[in-house]
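Example with several molecule types.
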Amino acid sequence: MHLPDGYLSTKVWIAGWLLSGTGISASLKQSKKLLEERTVPLMGLLSAFIFAAQMVNFPVGAGTSGHLLGAALAVILLGLAPAIVVMTTVLAVQCFIFQDGGLTAMGANLFNMAVIGPITAWAVYRGLRLIPGNGLTGVMIATGLASWCSVVAASAACATELALSGTIKFSLVFPAMTIVHMVIGIAEGVITCLILGFIWSVRKDLIIQDRGRIFSPGPADRRKVVVLFCILILIVILLSFFSSLLPDGLEKVAEILGFARGGSEPSFQAPLADYTWPGLESVFLSTALAGAAGAMIMVIVSAGIARLIVHRKRIRH
Amino acid sequence: MHHAFLDRYAYLESFVHKLDPRMKLIAFFLLLLSIVLHDVLYPRLFIIYAAMISVLLFISRIPLSFILRKARSISLISVLIALPLPFFTAGEKLFSVSLPGGFALSISRPGMVLFLNVLGKSFLSILLLILLFNSTKFPDLLKAFERLKVPAVMVLILNFFYRYIFVLIDDMERMLVAMKSRGPRMGKFALFKTLGAILGNLFLRSFERAERVYMAMQARNFNGKMHTLQSFSISGGDLAFFFCVLLAITGVRFI
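Resulting structure tokens for the full complex:
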């Protein structure tokens, strides 16, 4: 997902730098407030930890191996702002040492993997942690989903940047990127859960304790959880149904938003005209889009509903 | 553990290595911008830039095999991203094949132009970055960042990263060796669980080490600034190099 130089248009990479710069400087400030003088050694060592952990290969089989990416892990163990700082350091070093990702594109890369990734992980984790109580299962579910969503969200942002730059068509790059990262996200979720499972058995306090987060509310109401998940699944199914009905609608949105390079070119008014892949347009793309959109909506809705539940509880007390 | 994988060739002595890090950073960044900002990287422009970079690479005396190996592994990713471009960009067809089962594969002219454009730019930039980061020692690079007004905290964090990454990797490798010596043939489930435990352990170790480092720093009156003995100075050679780069990138605009 590390974009090299030359793939993004000038507008996009400058916007990437501005956005990630703002996000990172805000989180630097926040973590200095949270950790005071401890910031420098803690952030330095933990970014070194993430970097080292990324080197350990988990042989998945069939000659491939996965490794940790770490955004969700950092968020869960450190809180949002410090995690953004840690991921920034890791990405900067990856560029300096391995030349992974370009220098002009670094703003966009930071935005995807050091800002969007952690924020998504934080939203999902924080939202889901409110629901299933304080047990190991609840933490693991929240961790797994948070890791998965953070990877997919980062890849979606990356695909959008490529499309906005006019390098690749949105309808092509978005499903391709997100589908690949939906698989990578599963590995990420499993690895993060394994690491967190160990930390849970040794230093539970690091996971439960409040580092600028809120505690999860007491024992969860099982029925509420079941209802909530039913609603979420329903939303995902509905979404995939609608988006398979309206594949052209998405294309239209892309056109209106200016994803297409030179929207007036006749080439774009006949999308996918140059090649014919029977059935691809209606089934494959739309399911993928629906999956990604469903995941995003699920995150937002679950966080929102969790908020509501907590809020109502507080009022009742 | 040796610094082998971080900045192995940064300790060579050559004109490029000896350039003032600030000047080098700015000059290389300008060159990079100049490459990226071309709307279309015509073959002649590509050749000019490639020639400039290869001269610099030659002077730097970084082994060619190292550069190529590194460039190859990074370019692979950019080729992967760019690969669909010739096939999926609409426009005048250069070439078309119909495959069995109703599939048709065609390469379009604008797609090909876009493909070569993107690939050429990214390849040149990768070479440039390899040269920059392998001819500058990491501490010097960070000091240059500090002088160029990158936020001081960020630079300090990077400094700490550099100090402790070797310690952590040593820690990790010891644990991995211990794991292999005790369970050479583990099932996948056991292996993953153990690897997870090792990484969890590594986290706890680095977390606790950070606390100890912090206390040691407080004991030594750390006030948020790193003091080093070496200072940068800009020589005639630096200025000459900088003006050559400036001249080159303005000259290229008129070709």
